[in-house]
Amino acid sequence: MEQLISTMLAEGVPLETILLLLLLPIVATFIAFSRQVIGLRGFGMYTPLIISFAFVETGLRYGLGIFIAVLLTGTLMRFIVRKARLLYFPRIAIVLTIVALVMFLMLLEGAMSSRTGFISVSIFPLLIIIILVENFVAAQIEHGARAAIILSIETLIVATISYYLLTWEELRQFVFQYPWVILATIFINIGLGRWTGLRLAEYLRFREIFRHVDDAREE
Amino acid sequence: MLAKNKMILGMNARNLSYLRPFNTRAAIAIADSKLVTKRVLEKAGIPTPKLYGVLEDHRALRHFDWSVLPPSFVVKPNFGLGGEGIWILFGRNKQGKWVRARGETVNFFDLTSHISTILDGHFSMMNLPDIVLFEKRIQMSKTFKPYSFRGIPDIRVIVFNNVPVMAMLRLPTKQSQGKANLHLGGIGVGIDLATGVTTTAMHKQGWFDQKVDRSPDSKLPLSGIKIPDWDTILEMAIACQNVSGLGYIGVDVAIDKEQGPVVLEINARAGLSIQVANLASLRERLERVRGLKVKDAPHGIRVAKNLFGGQVEKEIEELSGREVIGLREKVTIFGKEELKADVEAKIDTGADRTSLDRDIAEELGFADMLTWFDTLTFPHIIERGVDARAFLKDVREKYLGQHPDLTEIGLIYSSHGMTVRPKVQLTIRLSGRNFVTNVSIVDRRNLRYTLLVGRNDLSQFLIDPRKV
Hints:
The complex is a heterodimer of chains A (219) and B (468). Chain A has one domain (2-218). Chain A contains 12 helices and no strands. Chain A has helices at residues 2-10, 15-38, 46-58, 60-84, 88-112, 116-119, 123-143, 145-167, 169-177, 184-193, 200-205, 207-218. The radius of gyration of chain A is 21 Å and the shape is flat. Chain B is 27% helix and 29% strand. Chain B is built from 12 helices and 24 strands. Chain B has helices spanning 11-22, 25-32, 34-43, 58-62, 108-119, 230-244, 274-278, 282-289, 297-308, 311-320, 358-375, 388-399; strands at residues 51-55, 73-77, 87-89, 91-92, 98-99, 105-106, 132-135, 154-160, 163-171, 187-192, 197-205, 208-212, 248-256, 260-267, 323-325, 328-334, 340-347, 355-357, 381-382, 408-414, 417-430, 433-442, 451-453, 461-463. In chain B, the strands form 5 sheets. A 7-stranded antiparallel beta sheet of chain B has the order 12-11-10-9-8-13-14. A 6-stranded mixed beta barrel of chain B has the order 16-17-23-18-22-21. Chain B is elongated. At the A-B interface, α7, α11 and α12 of A face α1, α5 and β12 of B.
């Protein structure tokens, strides 16, 4: 395996690509774990995963900044666009326009105050975070504003922890040295896939029942 | 708390242990489409709200004949989930606008653009193009009117293996904008399966489900509401399971003023909050029902009532501190020297005192005293006109204390006058409670019950004449 990786590197496959590819199953497993055992829902698997990779590109500080700016714009736009009562796709397009404009202004501000770290962020991670607004608006329509914010916060938590996994130097070293270890995630996921216990969030959700059953037992 | 992991049905366990094995893809497809559900249920004779029209696509919307709709109707996305995208229109105002639950008005353009959004698949589960249904608006039955805000309450029944395992009443609130869905702020009220009477209630407040006693809007207490047509609702829920083929099903029933109970929808992924409303574990109930051979709906209802009923009784008992008993109860009587007898007693609120058959009294070790009492030389039957009180006083003075088992002498009134009877002290266990009392010994040989429990001994009980 080491031989294979050396060959790939020698032929010009970037190290970061190999590392991120090897870390992907670990992050995916972590997201599966947060759903099945902790009970964080977020916007599915794709969104938190891709946002954590975008964070690696932008750095956590700017990544979070963009994320929050996107959500704030999305929330504000809700009040404006809702009044106009538009169909779904045009509505999303308008929200995206405004978000793009906000990004533009943020970059402008970054350029004025020479935040080189921020203004040199490449377009793709930026786009990935911007497109989050569709998830957000869809959640607003389907589940209401409150649920949309909760889901976004959950996504943010999962993506941030995933970011730390992706940038954890020891973990990077480890998967680089023992790439086959990622196959172990399959077994972890089989375990998670058969886990029928309560999620941590459900202990909170059902706490009234626990309290009640406790009372009944004591009698 | 982690030790209680197995007690409550969580998402993981529901999906893996119940949805996967018991809900086939074909059955889920029926439940997920309100239109298919309607057709399948109607074929089986299960009532559903009347359908006014269907819009399959944007073209159908452009050519739709709006005159088929009455002023008041409901717009529903066919593949909708959790009540989202449903518009209830109560009627048209003078300007010709439709009035919605919160009093807000919508014009023709608003309605058609909402319908377009539905058709685009916005409320459908997979975001695929959807179909729009126009249905009759259910009219509130009198029972629920004071408890619900604008919308229509419904009754969710979870059926597994032909047995209704748990049920709740869902009440729309101001917060839920007239919708009965719990995550939107509706109230879930647990229902005792045996009686169809509501028990405990929960309401989502902020992040969490909270136990509530009263409706936040009307302030009325939420327990003790009797659901009308309860057995019909249970039968309908079981029938829905049979025709849909869903092994684990949540059936939503509404009660229309004219039509009576109608099935609003069936759910292939019934939620878990019903456990909070009932403060009971679904997991435990499902496991008790799993694998039982249940032959038909009446059998399933009997099983449900026997296994999962009695919450109301338990609650009354908790509140009053008294035991709920029926008119006939099995009791144990403890006599002398650890002698005891199990008999069926009649609970007789028409009698003051408790009386016991002589044969049983003899079995319990009082034969000696009774024989001695018979030999006493005073008239055991008093004719009318004799001063009973003076007579009794006289007899008591003479004989009380003459035999250790004789604790009192009393009069029993009957058609031919009064009979003087001896009393003995006994301990009686009724419905798990023991009490000590003086019991008249009488000849009840020709009567059905050998023990009659009278008012004086019933102070710690509540009597439910239907309980058997």
